[in-house]
TrEMBL record:
Its EC number is 3.1.3.25. This is Inositol-1-monophosphatase. Belongs to the inositol monophosphatase superfamily. GO terms for molecular function: inositol monophosphate 1-phosphatase activity; metal ion binding. CDD domains: IMPase. Residues 14-24 have a biased composition (Low complexity). The lineage of its organism: Eukaryota, Sar, Stramenopiles, Ochrophyta, Bacillariophyta. Residues 1-24 are annotated as: Disordered. Pathway: Polyol metabolism; myo-inositol biosynthesis; myo-inositol from D-glucose 6-phosphate: step 2/2. Pfam families: Inositol_P (PF00459).
Amino acid sequence: PLKPASTTDATGMTSSEPPSSTPSLGAAAVAAAAAAAVGFAAARLLPSRPSANSEGNGDHAAVANARFAIPAELRADGCRYRKELEVAVGLVLEAGENMKGHCDARGTVDGHGSEHDLGISTKSSAADFATAIDVLNEKVIGEGIRAAFPSHSIIGEEDVGTGEIPPLGDGPTWIIDPVDGTTNFASGFPITCVSIGFCDGGVPVVGVAYGPVTGELYLAIKGYGAYRNGKRIRSIDPTAAPKTLSNSVVCFEFGYARSHESLEKMVGAVKRILSLGCRGTRQTGCGVLDICYVATGRMDIVYTGTADEGWKPWDYCAAMVVAEEAGCTIRSLF
């Protein structure tokens, strides 16, 4: 449902098919998830959320930690969407704190952190699930956005569940992935993040993604550039020789589709790309960070597959702004 029409890839490959329909976990699941989260979140005081009722309240501006301070260019009075960015940054940092306890404890002898502590709820299959923190984060983020911008619409992964994704209209709309790379998070694998995208006129214009384990905060406003931990980023060194596929690192991501037809599509796409030759391949399990890694030149291409492979708007909305502002290309290849 996002513009441009192609679903989105990180920077060179996408599917032009619309995202497949996705069932709400409902209020009961939210309550259960919040209860399950208490085990390792109760001992930690979370940052306060905005109490003002007016839209555009900047109480969530993240300036306490200089590493995550919003660049001056994006805080200037003339910068459109700066208030939306401030709120999004504060909320991803808060949500990231909810994830740290599990990630830090996973695999330790004296700490909690097994998958049993996470209140896992299966959605469409064993490979498609949510943890208590997914649901808690979405609740925290949704409340923060509604407090700051009560008239805005919100599309969140856990609220949609396996139901139908609402169409994206022209009004201001937030798209939330409370935990991207949920399997990584549940396993304690460090490549996982929280992401918030903001759309206006049906176009993603603000993107924020935070990896609480790696300690990297990506943010961008359309027309104002992309940043990682306060430093401007770009995908390609303009002084370097142009890259070719033969010296590129290609990342593949496959969702939770397991049908024979879907597997044939996935394997077929990989074979077509590999047959052309590339330097190396990667699969991290976190689409948002994949796209951000292309935006910083850590990888060169991300193949996001087709819609039935699992990619949804929250898997790329925020990162799409970061990638485009860093100079990446998003297009359909097959």
